[in-house]
Amino acid sequence: MIDHVRRIPAETLDHSAYHQDFAHHLSHLSGVVWKLERSQTFREVNDPSWRALMAGRWHHSLTLLEAERDLVRAQVRRNTDQRVTIRRIRIVEASLSPYLQWELNALRILAEEGFEVRALQAEHVAHLERAGQLPELVIIGDRVLYDVQYEADWTPCGARRIIDPSAIRSARSQIAHLFELGEPLLEFFDREVAPLPAPVPPSADSRPSWTLPRRSPPAADLAEDDFPSLTQMPAPPRDDLPPTTPAHRPRPLEPPPHPPRRR
Predict the structure, then answer these.
(1) Residue 157: inside a domain, yes or no?
(2) Per-position pLDDT tens, the chain of length 263
(3) What does 49-95 look like in DSSP terms, one character per residue?
(4) Domain harbouring 87, CATH code
(5) CB contact at 8 A, 108 and 100
C-alpha cells in the first residue's frame, strides 16, 4: 500500500502548515509515531552540521552533531513523560551517499540515547519500487499519515495530509513490518559506517537518481485494492518532521518528539 500513497486523495500543506499540523496531532498523543525514510539525500540548509558536511568539514560536522546530544536526551525524557514512542526505519542502499553517511552518524546519537531506529537494505523494498522510489512517510498514531513533499533538489516543502483510517492502518502495518525486518541502527552503524573514511561532499550540480512525482492522480483513478492488507512487508530533518522532535533530525531530531530535522 505504501507504494500507492501518492495516489491517495490528500490535503496539501506547505512547510509551515505541515509543522503546525504535526505539532497539533502530536501534542496529546500517547502512542507510536512511525517514520519511513527512503531518499539517499536531502538538503538541510538550516542545519549547521549539514552545511559543514557540504563545505568538506567532516570532523567539524560530527562535532556539531555531538553537541546536540543533550537536546536528544531531553527529548527522550519528554517522550517518556508523554508516553510517546518514535520508531523510524531508514532504507539504505549498498553504496552510502555522503548525505546518508552523515545522517547515519546523527541517527547513531538518537539510537544511543534511546530512540528506536533501524536500518534496512534497499533490496528488501525493491518489490515495492517497480514504479518508482517509495515516498517519505510519517504516521502519528491512528490520526494522520503525512506524505512528506520535496522540491526537485530534495529541499523539504511541506506534506500531503491523509486522514483516511484504512489508509493509515495499512501504511502503519507495512511500515511496522519493514521495521521488524530492519537491523538495529547501532549494529548496522558499527559494521557498515564506522569504518568509512570521511565522505567527499557532493557537487552543487549533482542530482538525485530518482525523479520526484509532480502531482497525484485524480481520486477517480483510485481503486479499492490500493489499500490491501499487507502481511508481506514492512523513515520530513530535515525539515520534514517538524523541528521539535529528535526523531526528525537525523536528522537528530523531530517535532515535539524530536529537534531539527535530520530530521
Answers:
(1) yes
(2) 899 999 999 999 999 999 999 999 998 899 999 999 999 999 999 999 999 999 999 999 999 999 999 999 999 999 999 999 999 999 999 999 999 999 999 999 999 999 999 999 999 999 999 999 999 999 999 999 999 999 999 999 999 999 999 999 999 999 999 999 999 999 999 999 999 999 998 764 344 444 444 333 333 222 222 222 222 223 333 444 554 444 444 443 344 333 334 44
(3) HHHHHHTT-HHHHHHHHHTTHHHHHHHHHHHHHHTEEEEEEEEE-SS
(4) 3.30.870.10
(5) no
Q: Is residue 251 in a domain?
A: no
Q: 72 is in which domain, residue-wise? A: 2-226
Query: Which residues have C-beta within 8 Å of that of residue 19, sequence separation ≥ 6?
Result: 239, 242, 243, 255
Task: Report yes or no on 66 lying in a domain.
Answer: yes
Considering its fold, how many domains does the chain have in total? 1
- Residue 244: inside a domain: no
